[in-house]
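quick one, 431 residues, struct below
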Amino acid sequence: MDGTVGPLEFSSRHKEAAPITKAQRAAIVRELESILTSKVFRASKRSKQFLSYVVNQTLDGHADLLKERSIGVELFHRAPSYSTGDDGVVRVQAGEVRRRLEQFYHEQGGSSLVRIELPVGSYTPQIRWNRDATPMDHETPHPAKNHRKLRLATVTALGLGVVLVLVVISARVHSAKPSRSALDQFWSPVFATSQPVLICVAKPIVYRPSLNLYRTYSKTHPNEFHAEVDRYDRALPLDPKEMVAWGDIVEFPGFGVAMGDAYVAAQLSALFARINKPSQVRIGSHYSFADLRNSPAVLVGAFNNRWTLQMTSNLRFVFAEEEGRLWIADRTSPGNAWSWRLGPHGEVVEDYGVVTRLLDSKTGQVLIAVAGIGQDGTQAAGEFISGPDYLRECLRTAPPDWQKKNLQVLVHTSVTESVAGPPGVVATYFW
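---
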């Protein structure tokens, strides 16, 4: 037995059937105060406001008003017409409150008289009573009578719990709430954390002709490459057979992010901004394994991002290389492999990418990798995880509990005039 009676979900529909007694209300208020002043909640003003609001609204019989839009308007001062699909502040904060409640009761053990919970998919709190300490309106000093009253209260509460559970089930069957979008569910493990999301973009080494080489060329081609803007925007048209000293090629640290990677970083930054989830873009050597251990992260790119290759090396779909050939391999079926296809002039016309979501990665944090064989595959993978339509269609055939699983999605894109087309799903894997 779990030592609880319930869950008892107090709402306006249930208040007449099972009114909350004064002693019960006082116990709930005391428990709420204990939670809000705990070290788990003390530093999070928003979490305290959110939990206090939904509990007090429920106790006052206004649970039917606890909808995403109304909470956004009343608690977070959003405009009444704001788009809940684009602005997920309520969903994100609810996830944060659930995480903190779990931590609070984990540290508290089973000592609480009352347990306040916020079920997934609902903004109406549920109250669970300790079976041996359900509060009563009147205390009886006689031990034997008090024991009989406690037993009677327990049986009564159990009966009421069964009735109320049936009422809740019946009400939800007839007025089911719309389910969260596939995009929300995919990102929920990241949104539920309090740390900012790191968007980690690789920056390979880039070289360019030295200033001396440009000047040498200008001596025989007057008025060319005298301005820095020309040196940035135009290729130096040297004779392919001309010998160049290694000293005339210099490392250029300010450049190097692939266009596809930059597009993905911009898409994800915009996605996180819409739901008020803090994020930080880290480029090249500006992030380390220690950073990945402290925050959820999105790794962008594959062969130009060593962390992606390391973190996904033991999974089903992996990036492989041999003698300059790059491809994606299926470790469970060695005969399956996917490589980019080149056009008649050496241009990429087909590319592949892999989306990987690890709920408990080698870093101990939620980790998502968005990577392609080339930049077009990376861009297609990024579009896949930031576009609700692509995710919804793909996850239509996913296992019922995919939200709690790791996953990999292999995507394909056709490239026209160096522009990646919409991503198409080739294969999926959940574990």
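The chain is about 40% helix and 20% strand.
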